[in-house]
Amino acid sequence: MKIRFSTSIALASLTAALTASASAQIVWTGAVGAGIFREANWDLTASTVTVIDYTIPILDNVILMGPGQEALIPDLPGQEAFTVADGFTIRIDNLRVFASGNDGLGGETGGANGITVNIVNGASFEPYFIRNRTFLDVDSTSQVIFRDPANPVNGSTINITLGSTLQFLLETPNDFRNEHLSKLTVDGASAVEGVNIRIDNLGTQGSSIVVLPTPVGTNYCMPNANSSGVAATMSASGSPVVNANSVTLECSSAPNLVFGFFITSQTAGFAMNPGGSAGNLCLSGAVGRFVGPGQIQNSGLDGTITLPIDLTNLPQPNGGAAANPGETWRFQCWFRDSSGGIPTSNFSDGLAILLQ
User: Fold this and answer.
1) 0.85 cut: is pTM over it?
2) Are the C-beta atoms of residues 166 and 140 closer than 8 Å to each other?
3) If phi over 0 gives left and psi between -120 and 50 gives alpha, with beta otherwise, what is residue 110?
4) What is the C-alpha to C-alpha distance for residues 320 and 178, in angstroms, rounded to an integer?
5) Within a 13 Å sphere around the CA of 131, how many CA atoms are in the beta-carbon half?
6) How far is Cα 317 from Cα 186, in angstroms, rounded to an integer?
7) Cα 261 to Cα 309: distance, rounded to the nearest angstrom
8) Cα separation of 92 and 136, whole Å?
9) Which pLDDT score is estimated for 239?
């Protein structure tokens, strides 16, 4: 009984310690300035960390959140880094973090797992370099700018998405291709020039990596021709990754100068000429309408209706719904039309998007 009692106490203590470690973090305040190595600029109350120094890896998660005082990696002796211990994470959220000299950020030397740095919500991360298995994940609103002409992505990797900004100020496009292309992914897939990225030459300003919009979704369901003489067709661009939240719907070949809007459901269907329409409804089940402010569009002189959509708030009969990875959402365009001079409506074909 004593052995069991002692073991249970030890396990409980270990569990409590691990739980505390997992939830602990240091939080940037910028209370006394921009210096990232000044302890007074950090809230350390939830952490066991007491010293912020480039010679000592930080044994905790790190939060640099704005808006507020920018965080500066100062010009250090030699070439050093803001270093976080193996397995921890850094979140740079709506804040500028930059280096004034030739210093950077990274994991500890010899770490088996490396560190993850999430750049989100309009953040700007401007180091000289990253090193030692640092994984940068840059969201669609944020930017990363490197200034090292030699090896700014040293033993590390980067993931970007549509809308991310990634620049190498002192490296040519060929430098990037030769040194860093293999270290870059787009929404988790290998970066391929001309397929999911474009490499722009900025001249004396180096190079910039741009994520290309890619076709998203699969067309289905037979549409009827409208008064333009052809059938309207759905397409989408952006990314099927839910966290990227970057999908733009497009309906082309609609009649010119007519109003229309998109509809959506997770369920496919087929109904000929519903309610006297000249087209076919390709959805069933719970069908939502994009009819909020600014969502009802005019097709203009080219017969095209476009709409960026919010995957966290897709319209449904009982309110907005957030899409989840693994779900298939279906979209269609419903627009005004005429048949033999009589006002009616029509539909595009359907578009099914399997979200990731």
Assistant:
1) no
2) no
3) left
4) 46
5) 18
6) 34
7) 12
8) 10
9) 85
Pairing state between β 61-65 and 71-73? unpaired
Longest dimension (CA), the chain: 92
**What pLDDT is recorded for position 246?**
87
Flag whether pLDDT at 8 surpasses 60.
Answer: no
Q: What is the per-residue pLDDT for 6? A: 38
pLDDT in tens, 58-102: 999 999 999 999 999 999 988 999 999 999 999 999 999 999 999
Task: Please state whether the peptide bond connecting residue 152 to the residue before it is cis, i.e. omega within 30 degrees of 0.
Answer: no
Mean pLDDT of 149-163: 94
Q: Report the 3 state secondary structure along the chain.
A: CHHHHHHHHHHHHHHHHHHHHHHCEEEECCCCCCECCCHHHEECCCCCCCCCECCECECCEEEEECCCCCEEECCCCCCCEEEECCCCEEEEECCEEEECCCCEEEECCCCCCCEEEEEECCCEEECCCEECCEEEEECCCCEEEECCCCCCEECCEEEECCCCEEEECCCCHHHHHHHCHHHEEECCEECCECCCEEEEECHHHCEEEEECCEECCEEECCCCECCCCCECEEEEEEECCHHHCEEEEEEECCCCCCEEEEEEECEEEEEECHHHCCCEEEEECCCEECCCCCCCEECHHHCCEEEEECCCCEEECCEEECCCCCCEEEEEEEEEEEECCEEEEEECCEEEEECC
Angle at CA of residue 139, ends 237 and 309, nearest 5° = 40
Residue 17 has pLDDT above 60, yes or no: no
Pairing assessment for the beta strands 184-186 and 153-154 based on DSSP bridges: unpaired
pLDDT tens digits, one per residue of 269-321 = 999 999 999 999 999 999 999 999 999 999 999 999 999 999 999 999 999 99
Give the per-residue pLDDT at 12.
Answer: 39
Amino acid letter for position 97 = V
